[in-house]
Specification:
5-stranded mixed beta sheet; two-stranded antiparallel ribbon
Length: 202
């Protein structure tokens, strides 16, 4: 039981706070590059870093208190992913089918979807050298998720602990996940979660 709890804590740290810190490191590297080209842009990036660091600190505090990202609990998956995407050092479009926007999922399923997309975005930041990413959410007898980037392709997505953790989380609720070459280059992560939607007002 203690081993299972340690694994859960380690997985949550990896999927939550660690991803935020990786994004901060990537943005810090961007700021260093900008310093040699455009000091005003570097200053703006550093201001964003201050904001992102405060948010990461808040999420670490939430984790210590046993809480998933507060925005996920308060406002749902779409808003949480939009805020997550806004803190990354590359362009991320979040394309959501209207049905997914107006409805909520059961909390464990929202959490799984959050971790899958967050992990996929972290892999892009670490390995893909991408300029653009598109996150797509649609309803297809469950929640269908796609995260597509224009980076170096599947060779850049190392099949390490991150993808293993994604697979474990998805399998635990009866879903499936696949990582493949994108239709126009890059990589696409596809995931299907057999979710039961509930009204946002319930």
């Amino acid at each position: 039981m203690q081993d299972a709890e340690r694994q859960r804590i380690g997985r949550d740290l990896h999927d939550g706070a660690q991803q935020q810190l990786i994004a901060i490191i990537a943005k810090a590297m961007l700021a260093r590059t900008q310093l040699h080209r455009d000091a005003s842009r570097a200053d703006a990036t550093l201001q964003e870093l201050q904001h992102d660091t405060r948010l990461a600190l808040g999420e670490i505090r939430d984790f210590v208190n046993g809480i998933f990202p507060q925005v996920l609990a308060d406002h749902g998956l779409v808003v949480a992913l939009q805020q997550r995407a806004a803190r990354l050092p590359f362009a991320v479009a979040v394309d959501v089918e209207p049905t997914v926007t107006v409805e909520r999922l059961d909390p464990p399923l929202e959490a799984t979807a959050w971790f899958v997309v967050s992990e996929a975005l972290t892999n892009v930041a670490k390995h893909a050298a991408a300029d653009q990413v598109c996150v797509r959410l649609r309803w297809d007898a469950g929640l269908a998720i796609e995260v597509e980037d224009d980076g170096v392709g599947t060779d850049g997505h190392r099949r390490g602990n991150g993808l293993t953790n994604m697979g474990d989380r998805v399998a635990a609720i009866g879903g499936d996940i696949d990582v493949a070459a994108g239709p126009n280059g890059g990589t696409v992560v596809r995931c299907h979660l057999p979710a039961v939607m509930r009204g946002a007002s319930t």
